[in-house]
Amino acid sequence: MKIIVYLFFLAFILSCNQTTKTVPFEPQETALALSQDILDYRITPKDSSDRSGFMFSDQGSWFAYSLPKTTKNNIGFSGPFLMTQENGVWSSPILSNLSLSTQQSKDQLIHFNNDLVEQHSYSSHLSQLFRNSEIELKQELVYISGHTALQRTTITNNSKREIPIQAKIHGQVFDIGMKLYNENGLIKLVSKNSEAIGYIQLAEDIEKIDISNENTYYSLQLKEFNLQPGESKEIIISQTFIFPEYSWDLEKKFIAKTNFDSILKVRQLEKEIQLKGILDNRDSTFNDTIYAEVLIKAHLTLQNNWRIAAGALKHEGLFPSYHYQWFNGFWAWDSWKHAVGLSYFNIPLAKNQMRAMFDFQLENGFILDCIFRDTTIEAHNYRDTKPPLAAWAVSEIHKKDKDLSFLKEFYPKLKKYHYWWYKERDHDQDGLCEFGSTDGSLIAAKWESGMDNAIRFDDSKILKNAENAYSLDQESVDLNAYLYAEKIYLSEIALILDRPLDSKKFTSEAIQLKQKIQSQFYDPNDKWFYDTNLEGTVFIKGEGSEGWTALWANAATQEQAEEVKNIMMQPEKFFTKVPFQTMSADHPKFNPLNGYWRGPNWLDQAYFGVKGLRNYGFNIEADKATIQIINSADGLLEKGKSIRENYHPITGEGLNAENFSWSAAHIIMLLLKD
């Protein structure tokens, strides 16, 4: 019902003509207010590759902005940061810089360092306020679509005299292969490094347009205007970056019909509904404000990594991290995790995240490891796939909205992908699968596990199963636990779709697989689940997070689960400062600072551990671990700091990429009810 009401309201607001004036949105609840400055977006980039600050985006746009942090007199928003170009680059320190002066004096009426009063960010928009004895200037930025952001400047005369004002919008691009042109009163931005075309449009009478510095600088001189004491004037700029598959003509008409106050109210309501929905769904243990703020940070992290369809990407989805230069695509198991996190507040996006990967499914059922906007086949990684969590994601999405058509759409695809594992990754055809690769390379086989350099693969070898099908010479407990869970999910989906024979088959297979997991992978001496050799006669020792995936999948016995739980809760092993890291802290190869999967805490693995405990009734331990994870991972509870790719389990230090999507998604899963 909430979604229907929201869509009706959205349609009503967008139908308002440009002369409509609406009352600013004032949420009755505190969800949107809690998002204020939850991430620190202050940066004035010193060059095109400066990643020393964070960037704000919305609506799946491929460009982002920040709040300036400068000693120069720049009045505007930093950027945009363009993900339309490979790996992401800043287009400019401030692409639309505002200068205000009078005819009598060329001195600026507003100075950044002297007159800045406040800068704020929200999940819905950015804003900043400047004030001196003569002028008050407020700037706001909001996205109207995945192609266009609106920037509004409101200038108010604070003095007791009339002020004649000369206003100029201007900017210069970095050396990023971009040129600027005057196209019928618009500034057009064309880059040799991207198919996306940019447009800067000013909703004012322009007196003069200047393009100079070899087409890297522009200025738009407005006609002079007078402000009486207490009088205000608005200047609205739109910045658009649009790919060829979208229509600029349609976007231009959409911009013309859009009222700034209306679209700001839509965005505020949209975020309020999403955030309130998340906060209202918290487990009662996590009702404190600190958990509300970390959930809002997680929501905003996912929002900033959201990208609309473009190029080879036929559906929208999420980057792992816009902030890290190599994470500018969609990855398979990242996508499954993102989709589950998104399902709590944005079901349409969660579904499209799933579709984005399955658009590339091969006829034999194979799902690519990662896909990119680049349309060349070479751009995508066909060398391996990722662990099978897709049925889990589809099931979690369906649990939220009960959309039968979504299950009908995905069931045959999931079924094909599930059985692909048994055709291509079961070397000895014993019903237990191995990670592997399509090209016969050992490194790609390790990538397929998602845990690239985990110690269990230190002595692995590659074996050929068939053409374009290779396996490691070991059977992995996590892979088979995931496949067991998939059988259960597929059985349930088949039953919902009135396919009782399929359901019965999956259930029968699950029972057999569960028995194999319990008997082959569990070491009764160590009381831990390990990978084994193909024959199932030798354990590949070294306690790692794969050991509790059987608990997450509900594939262990109660006794096995209790023994695993006891080890998980030992401080010298897994109950560290940031609990449930990827390998036991007492192992000689434990190395969080230089280990990647040899010691850091990845929040997906921590979540699987917590969820595994809950599955077997160990809720006290699960709550204790969750609280310690959230409280001890550096920056999670601190305003301004980002959610990291992983964390040092002993010190709590954030490691590797910032603004990491699957960490954010699993924070949502950790703190919300199922």
Describe the protein in words:
It is a single chain. This protein has 674 residues and is of the alpha+beta class. It has 18 helices and 30 strands. The protein has an eight-stranded antiparallel β-sheet. Strands 4, 9, 13, 14 and 15 form a five-stranded antiparallel β-sheet that branches. Strand 11 and strand 12 (197-202) form a beta hairpin. Helix 7 (332-342) runs antiparallel to helix 8, helix 9 packs antiparallel against helix 10 and helix 9 (390-401) packs parallel to helix 12 (477-496). Residues 1-25 have low confidence and may be disordered.
**DSSP summary: helix tally:** 18
The coarse overall form would be elongated
Helix content: 25-40%
Query: What portion of the residues fall into strands of 2 or more residues?
Result: 15-25%
Alpha-carbon distance between the two ends: 20 Å
* Mean pLDDT across residues: 94
Cα gyration radius (Å): 27 Å
Structural class estimated from helices and strands: alpha+beta
Largest sheet: 8 strands, antiparallel
Q: Could you list the spans in which at least 5 consecutive residues all have pLDDT below 50?
A: 1-25
Q: Count the E strands.
A: 30
Strand order of the largest sheet: 5-6-7-8-16-12-11-10
